[in-house]
Amino acid sequence: MKKADESPKDTSKNNTLSEQEIEIDGKSISPYALRRDSTPGLKNILLKGQMYYLQDIIGIIYLCSPVINNISELTDQGLYLNDLNPHGLGREMVLAGWQNNSKLQYMFDKAEQRATELENNYVLLDTWKRRGDDLLYSMIPKPVADRLRAGHSPLSTCESFDLVTVMFCELVGLNSTTVQDAMELVSTMNAVFSCFDSLMDTYNVYKVETVGQIYMAVCGAPERNENHAQNIIDVSLCMVKHVRQMQIPSRAKVDIRIGAHSGMVVAGVVGIKLPRYCFFGDTVNTASRMQSTSEPGMVHISKVTKCLLPLNRYVLRTRGFVKLKGKGSLETYWVFENIYNDENYVDS
């Protein structure tokens, strides 16, 4: 019973002590003011401002002002009008009693900022999408790539073409025995092949691939073209001319030899991780043999391709029968020039 009687007395004593004011720096502060849940003055407050990095003191300072909705909230927070930002309409909105206008302004500013960021991200997304399309179309023709995007199977892209012209071109006279030579070789190949790429677009010829120092192109597939042989010969002569006139960064003496053949091919997308639009068939092998048996600065074509060219348009000379590996002897021709000598004339 004695302990029970002492308990209320101790509690009353503790309550009395807790109600006493605490003196800090010469000022008396009620202990309730230090409790977060005891007074509205210590509620969470919304601040609006900007952070600055001070290099002199190696610190960050936050310059801000409170966001208040009305006079009542201002007094509840223990603030004065002078505490508000002198710039903008913060004070006027508080004095006018516009409920939630300050927060609405803050939310509007944040929404506007997010809209700007979203717009910038959209522009960036569109830029990267175009870069992705350019990369995709460099590996796969646009009509075929669009079919794959539409959900068609890669096997559905396989197609047989009755008559196309295939061209192979090889850079000759380049050797790399040191690392420096190899770097110059890569620089030279990049300059030459970049020039060839622009010519392919001009003459409606599709670049298939580059393997080492060999450049492969086709006309008549995947977009059918009746003038495929003529376009291949025109671009081949143009390639020989441009290489002779090019200013190579490494100042190396570069020449090319070209071979072309016409016939049937099968084409389709091959590969999953790195898909490529590839061509298969005896025509591809024969065109490769025509290139390997050609000479620097010359365009070497088969009789089949020669028969597909317009009469009296090119200066041709028979080479006779040439023995090709795995093909036997074939009658071949040299193509020297286009009689019209007009690079701007292109048959579609």
Write up this protein:
GO terms for molecular function: guanylate cyclase activity; nucleotide binding. Its EC number is 4.6.1.2. By secondary structure, the protein is of the alpha+beta class. Among the domains are: 38 residues, no CATH class; 184 residues, 2-Layer Sandwich (Alpha-Beta Plaits), CATH 3.30.70.1230. Helices cover 39% and strands 27% of the residues. It contains 9 helices and 12 strands. The strands form 3 sheets. Strands 5, 6, 7, 8, 9, 10, 11 and 12 form an 8-stranded mixed β-sheet that branches. Strands 1-2 form a two-stranded antiparallel sheet. Strands 3-4 form a two-stranded antiparallel sheet. The chain is elongated and about 105 Å long. The N and C termini lie far apart (113 Å). The N terminus and C terminus are likely disordered.
